[in-house]
């Protein structure tokens, strides 16, 4: 999949470089955690010059936000399978919550990164938020109450912060999302 960079459109060669950088970032996170992640260390593993890496990513937060955006964008929307509205919403929330659940260092880094002030992170945060909103709106169905949609977005965002702060695992976060979404929807 050829993703458009948050900073510019990419040629095939540039897209390959960005792909190598995002994969290397996950490797560094697994070994060093978010505190040990630097754009320079990622560049070394990806086999590119640090200056090249910085042409694509303004900060480590930007790099981690891009990793999450790519995972979200590449993940299919959960299939309806005859679920009712609550079941569809729960499936969407669980799917998004579990995208990085089996990679605790990445999951924690995503929370840290998405809270950043970097303009490139803000751009990705908006794209991620719109994608999650669209998925939830689709799950809610035609004529849904916008306040319910916003409550579900707040539920997800609050849960992400709680999990990132260490108040449970991301798998537990997915379970709590399900319980809380049912309270909102039923």
Automatic annotation (TrEMBL):
Q: Which residues bind DNA?
A: 38-57
Gene3D superfamilies the UniProt entry points to: Tetracycline Repressor, domain 2
Q: Which PROSITE patterns match?
A: HTH_TETR_1, HTH_TETR_2
Record InterPro entries: DNA-bd_HTH_TetR-type_CS, Homeodomain-like_sf, HTH-type_TetR-like_transc_reg, HTH_TetR
Q: Start and end of every HTH tetR-type domain?
A: 15-75
The protein's UniProt keywords, in alphabetical order, are: DNA-binding, Transcription, Transcription regulation
| Name of the protein in its database record | Helix-turn-helix domain-containing protein
Q: What is the lineage of its organism?
A: Bacteria, Bacillati, Actinomycetota, Actinomycetes, Mycobacteriales
């Amino acid at each position: 999949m050829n993703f458009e960079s948050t900073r510019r459109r990419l040629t095939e060669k540039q897209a390959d470089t960005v792909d190598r950088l995002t994969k290397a970032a996950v490797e560094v996170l697994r070994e060093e955690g978010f505190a040990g992640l630097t754009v320079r260390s990622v560049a070394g593993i990806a086999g590119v010059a640090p200056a090249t890496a910085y042409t694509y990513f303004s900060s480590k937060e930007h790099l981690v936000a891009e990793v999450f955006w790519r995972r979200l964008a590449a993940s299919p929307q959960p299939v309806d399978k005859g679920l009712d509205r609550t079941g569809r919403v729960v499936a969407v929330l669980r799917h998004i919550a579990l995208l990085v659940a089996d990679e605790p260092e990445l999951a924690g880094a995503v929370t840290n990164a998405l809270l950043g002030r970097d303009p490139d992170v803000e751009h990705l945060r908006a794209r991620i938020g719109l994608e999650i909103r669209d998925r939830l709106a689709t799950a809610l169905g035609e004529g849904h109450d916008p306040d319910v949609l916003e409550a579900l977005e707040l539920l997800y965002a609050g849960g992400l912060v709680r999990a990132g702060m260490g108040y449970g695992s991301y798998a537990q976060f997915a379970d709590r999302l399900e319980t809380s979404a049912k309270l909102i929807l039923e």
